[in-house]
Write a structure and sequence with these properties.
The protein is α+β, with helices and mostly antiparallel strands. 39% of the residues lie in helices and 14% in strands. The protein has 8 helices and 5 strands; from the N terminus they run ααβαβββαααβαα. A hairpin with a 2-residue loop joins strand 3 and strand 4 (89-90). The structure holds flavin mononucleotide (FMN).
């Protein structure tokens, strides 16, 4: 698949995973893709912990309530350091977002599935902090996202997305197209 096909094929997977373990070299390839992402002023504020030990995975699952990705054989935890790139400008969110997208694309290319779980683990119940505690993450790092990795057992559902012309234009913002869409109730 070309990179464009990989980008278009990638979708969030929230179903059951097959039992197959993910080989270490594939997990390293995925993490390397994440670390190869650009970062503001090359501050490299993103770090990763991949969990593929079944005992550690089960400990993590005890703190994820409601549960997600219960059958995934591996999970990549994304850590960020809120370091300013210059003056008061911190690009840590952009840095880890670029790293996550790179990893999602690598996961797709290697034939695995995943989902960007950030809302679930950074909500008020602070599941991410509990996972960080279990993984001995030191002060100064926030665990902001988990990416399960494994082979999908079920069909992947493709969500409905807005059309190209509702969100992208050439040379000027196109209010007319947007109003047409609203008029059509689309
Ligand atoms: C910042 C961010 C946070 C997300 N958090 C969650 C989450 O907590 N739980 C979840 O099921 N999906 C989460 N997602 C996945 C989105 O729901 C998903 O990308 C979106 O519905 C579009 O579907 P697609 O990934 O198949 O294109 C998150 C995505 C992003 C970018």
């Amino acid at each position: 698949m070309s990179i464009i096909e990989i980008i278009k094929n990638r979708h969030s997977y929230r179903g059951t995973y097959k039992d197959d373990k993910v080989p270490k070299e594939d997990l390293v390839t995925i993490m390397e893709a994440g670390l190869a992402a650009p970062s503001g002023c090359n501050m490299q504020t993103t770090s990763l912990i991949c969990v593929d030990d079944p005992d550690v995975l089960s400990k993590i699952r005890t703190v994820i309530d409601p549960p997600i990705a219960e059958t995934a054989p591996a999970m990549i935890c994304v850590l960020t350091q809120r370091i300013n790139a210059y003056r008061d400008k911190c690009f840590a969110v952009q840095d880890y977002s670029a790293a996550i997208e790179n990893m999602l694309l690598a996961i797709e290319e290697l034939g695995y599935s995943s989902c960007w779980y950030e809302g679930h683990i950074t909500d008020d119940d602070r599941i991410g902090d509990k996972i960080a505690g279990l993984l001995n993450v030191p002060e100064g790092y926030d665990l902001v996202c988990v990416l399960p990795v494994g082979i999908a057992e079920d069909e992947i559902t493709v969500p409905k997305k807005k059309s190209f012309d509702e969100r992208a234009w050439f040379n000027s913002f196109n209010r007319n197209v947007l109003e047409n869409h609203r008029g059509n109730g689309t």
